[in-house]
Write a structure and sequence with these properties.
Chain lengths: 138, 370
Amino acid sequence: MSASAVGVSFRPGELEVRPDGTGNQLGSRCSACGAHFFPVREACSGCLSDQLETVRFSTEGTLYTFSIVRQSTPAFEVPYALGYVDFPEGVRIMGQISGIDLDEIKIGMPMVLSLEPFGEDEEGNPLTGYRFRPAEGN
Amino acid sequence: MTRFGKHPDSDAADLGAEALHGAVADAGIDPRLIEAAYVGHVFQGMVTGQRVLAQVGLAGLPLANVENACSSGATAIREASLAIRAGEHDVVIAIGTEHLTSKFRGALTPDPSDPEAAVGATMPSVYAMRARRYMEEFGMTREQLALIPVKNKSNAARNPLAHFRKEITVEDVLESRPIADPLRLHDCSPVTDGAAAVILMSDKAAKQHSNGRAVKLAASALRTGTVDVEPASMTFEPLTWATAQDAYERAGIGPEEVDFAEVHDCFSIAEVLRVEGLGLFKQGDYPSAVERGDANIEGRLPINPSGGLIGKGHPLGGTGVAQVVEIVRQLRGESGDRQIEGPRVGLAHCRGGKAVGIEGAACTVQILVR
């Protein structure tokens, strides 16, 4: 993807999109106890410390569960797959699933973060969001 | 309470007023005895409670509108009970009302600011994912899950105030429109209009004014979900468990003493997670218990004899109050065709709302004793 084709992150506080088209999901890490949170928090609910730093999460995780959504709001074209992916930092993040037939998705599949076009802003500029797709060779 | 269903010719204030009149008539009191009001609703806009009271000519009372998603009505009851326990009031009305058909069609979604709503989460899809995981972990079959709407709609068919009055079969469930796999239309509670009201009294006021039919509210517990430090299991509900423990402790009653329960079955899988979270059934056991008939009105531990949210309907703000109305009527032996034999202890459970990273927004457990 060329730099000019990279849209702005659909939610900059939760998804960092760099000019080269790579990116990471953002969250918080507690400097006191090491707990991780998605999205960014102001204080740790484990130890109540407010010493939280914003961190980039890993891009590889495991599918915890999923559903094929067949009725949704007008903003989303159905059907689409939605899943929760567990990441090594100890966070579970929901996202749509792409790159696989809907009837081949299985709990426990290794998944990777995938930056993809995700709607437009109010002025019609393309936005970049995230989906999860099965890891290569899976 | 009002009939639950579609009420195209009325609004939340009309429904709330009808429920209020019903509660006052049932208590047999002069409505001017009511000292304060708490009114739960979700999508009805500002000061809906005041519009209800204006409708019936009760002006000047202290009144608070209460919003806690699907636990709004139950939270109104809890606030009313706290006002009485605090010694501030002796007679308080709690009302829950919702005219949902004028506000929503199809699947409810979390607030659009929520990061999960932004990627396409709907309420059915979140429960569908929990159902999928529960099936994987505990071997529940799709047919077993279908027995829950079959049971609840059969109970609703015996409830004149229910939204649905028609029995269904497992095949009807499995052939209904897919909403979010593995959930289908019959697994989901409907978009419903309705209202319910209850009058709470201090012991002193109950002695003076009650017509002898009052039942005791032994506990009314409320919690909000904690932020997950580790991803929580989605097949068990620590929030329901913790709220239930508060209620059991306050009431001095354990789960083994509960004779029946109204639980928040917004979806078929939700009933499984709720009764197990409440400690009424062991984790993983409920699907086979339903198969054996244990949760039927004639069973060992009836669950959702009113028809539940799936059968009776789910007017968000009205739901928690309607559960308590059902429990009161069951405890008094006034439930007609769906009467449970001689219950002493009934439990009502609500939970509602979704915010990313917390297990659930608001959960209530109330225990009533004859």
